[in-house]
């Protein structure tokens, strides 16, 4: 299975914030959409960073004026990405090894979706359910 299959089910719509938006604005967008992370992009195409709930929580104790700071102050600049043709098992490995929960999808250097660990797990559970059903059918209906 590949990333493209996840995107076919969930869609490719992404919500971004600019580096110059405030952390307060990013928190508002995260809450509004129920997301755990947002891609940072000035034009909605080029990935400049990512800001997650974890980034916000880590910064909470550092600055009293956190919500007024620009996103660029706390975002993660080194963003791991994937492509539509990447295999789901390789995403699982990367997410586990790098301890990341969100991977922007890039096509020709352009943001084309976002895959979360939840999307990957949901997809894998669906695969396992399908495999289980095939095995049960085989057992009950013979060879």
At a glance:
The protein is an alpha+beta fold and 143 residues long. The protein has one domain: Roll (CBS-domain).
Known CATH architecture: Roll
What is the level 1 CATH name?
A: Alpha Beta
Gross morphology is elongated
Q: Pick out the low-confidence regions.
A: none
What's the domain count?
A: 1
Q: Give the N-terminus to C-terminus distance in angstroms.
A: 26 Å
Order of neighbouring strands in the sheet with most strands: 1-2-3
Number of DSSP helical runs: 5
Relative strand content: 15-25%
What is the helix fraction of residues, given as a range? 40-55%
What average pLDDT do the residues reach? 92
What sequence of helices (H) and strands (E) makes up the elements? HEHEEHHEEH
Report the strand count: 5
The CATH superfamily title: CBS-domain
Q: Radius of gyration, Cα only, in angstroms?
A: 18 Å
Largest sheet: 3 strands, mixed
The CATH topology name reads CBS-domain
How would you explain this protein's 3D organization?
By secondary structure, the chain is α+β, with helices and mostly antiparallel strands. It has a single domain (3-141), classed as CBS-domain. It is 44% helix and 16% strand. It is built from 5 helices and 5 strands; from the N terminus they run H-E-H-E-E-H-H-E-E-H. The protein has helices at 3-10, 23-33, 53-60, 88-98, 117-141; strands at 16-17, 37-40, 49-52, 102-107, 110-116. The strands form 2 sheets. A 3-stranded mixed sheet has the order 1-2-3. A two-stranded antiparallel ribbon has the order 4-5. Helix 4 (88-98) crosses helix 5 (117-141). The longest helix is centred in the C-terminal third of the chain and has 25 residues, at 117-141. It is elongated. The relative contact order is 0.19. The model has no long low-confidence stretch (mean pLDDT 92).
């Amino acid at each position: 299975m590949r990333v493209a299959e996840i995107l076919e089910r969930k869609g490719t719509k992404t919500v971004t914030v600019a580096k110059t938006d405030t952390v307060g604005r990013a928190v508002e967008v995260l809450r509004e959409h129920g997301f755990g992370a947002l891609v940072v992009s000035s034009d909605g195409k080029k990935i400049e960073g990512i800001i997650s709930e974890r980034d916000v929580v880590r910064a909470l104790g550092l600055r009293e004026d956190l919500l007024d700071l620009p996103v660029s102050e706390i975002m993660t600049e080194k963003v791991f990405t994937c492509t539509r043709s990447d295999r789901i098992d390789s995403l699982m490995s990367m997410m586990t090894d790098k301890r990341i929960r969100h991977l922007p999808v890039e096509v020709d250097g352009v943001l084309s979706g976002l895959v979360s660990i939840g999307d990957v797990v949901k997809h894998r559970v669906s695969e396992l359910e399908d495999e289980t059903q095939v095995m049960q059918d085989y057992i009950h209906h013979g060879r």
